[in-house]
Amino acid sequence: MQRKVLLAVGVSAVALGASGLASIAITSASASGANKSLALIQGTKADDFYIAMGCGAKAEAAKLGYSINVQGPTDFSAPEQIPIVNAITAQHPAAVLIAPTDTQALIAPMQAMKSSGIKVVQVDTSVTNTSIAVSSVTSNNLLGGEKAAQSLASLIGNKGTVVVMNEQPGVSTTDARVKGFIQEMKSSYKNIKVLSTQYVGDSPTKAAQTIDSLLVANPGLNGVFATNVLVAEGVDTGLNNAGKKGKVKIVGYDADPAQIHDLKVGIVQSLIAQEPYLEGVDGVEQAVNSLTGKPVTKSIQTPLVSITLANLSKETKYVYQSKC
């Protein structure tokens, strides 16, 4: 009986020893940064801008020896994106790149992500709480709006009536584009009237319907600034269907394949293009830097350019990818 007790104690000690070694191994792995998983939460998976961003993020993650899980809501919507954020937080990757769909609504879920020990990097869009993200990567959207105003003013001879078609208020990037556009028009183009901004969601169908209604109410409309890919696609379709191709000038934001096609056939005259692939690369780089103790850049602005038919062949790197 005594030998059995001693044997049982010995076995227990061995088990405890093994458990202790496993615990030490887990702790050591965690401390050494063995978690090589990242995630990218897109603003919407339906937008070629975010598809191109995902391609850049995947390439850079692979280059640096990390895996990356890319997900996004069907629509650019906080109610659709928040459950994805919560699910990714529960999976506990080492770092997350996120394009928040609302400046306020995403603060709490992103703060919960940070509080769980996950490094957070904002790409493209941002929330108003600047303490959550270790880095934010975007283009200069205020400048982009100014460039759009300059392009559209030139296209309509510096006089006439224009309108801004936007997705929804409360999105950091498009809010800045609208602000830059209106400021530039008011300060530099006194003979151009800017109608009230139209909000159509991320819906090409609604954008097409809205521009059709605007044409009825404002038959002398000279130009449109569409603030992102999906809105611009709808505006292009609506004006083309209304027989206004080339008569009502369009400056779109972003340069996906559909927009490039519309530029080539004369439906749209100018595009303000970003570099989403580079945003994905930079976002991953800053995330990995934050995990490995390297210097992290708090704010990065990627380039943007105004594309016309005349310079398209020289600016092909700014054309977005629809697949990797």
Topology of helices and strands:
Blueprint: H1 2-31, E1 37-41, H2 48-64, E2 67-71, H3 78-91, E3 95-98, H4 107-115, E4 119-123, E5 135-139, H5 141-155, E6 160-166, H6 172-188, E7 192-194, E8 198-199, H7 204-217, E9 223-226, H8 229-241, E10 249-253, H9 257-264, E11 270-273, H10 276-292, E12 299-302, E13 305-307
Parallel strand pairs: 1-2, 1-3, 3-4, 4-5, 5-12, 6-7, 6-8, 6-9, 9-10, 10-11
Antiparallel strand pairs: 11-13
Helix pairs in contact: 2-10, 3-4, 5-6, 7-8
Structural notes for this entry:
The protein is an alpha/beta fold and 324 residues long. It is 48% helix and 17% strand. Strands 6, 7, 8, 9, 10, 11 and 13 form a 7-stranded mixed sheet that branches. Strands 2-1-3-4-5-12 form a 6-stranded parallel sheet, sandwiched between helices. Helix 2 packs parallel to helix 10, helix 3 runs parallel beside helix 4 and helix 5 crosses helix 6. The protein is elongated, with a radius of gyration of 25 Å.
pLDDT < 50 stretches: 1-33
> How many helix segments?
10
What structural class should be given to the helix and strand makeup?
alpha/beta
Rg computed from alpha carbons, rounded to a whole number of angstroms: 25 Å
Topology as a string of helices (H) and strands (E): HEHEHEHEEHEHEEHEHEHEHEE
- If you average the pLDDT, what whole number results? 89
Query: Strand fraction band?
Result: 15-25%
Q: Report the span from N to C terminus.
A: 69 Å
Overall 3D shape: elongated
Q: Biggest β-sheet, characterized?
A: 7 strands, mixed
* Helical content class: 40-55%
Instruction: State the total count of DSSP E strands.
Output: 13
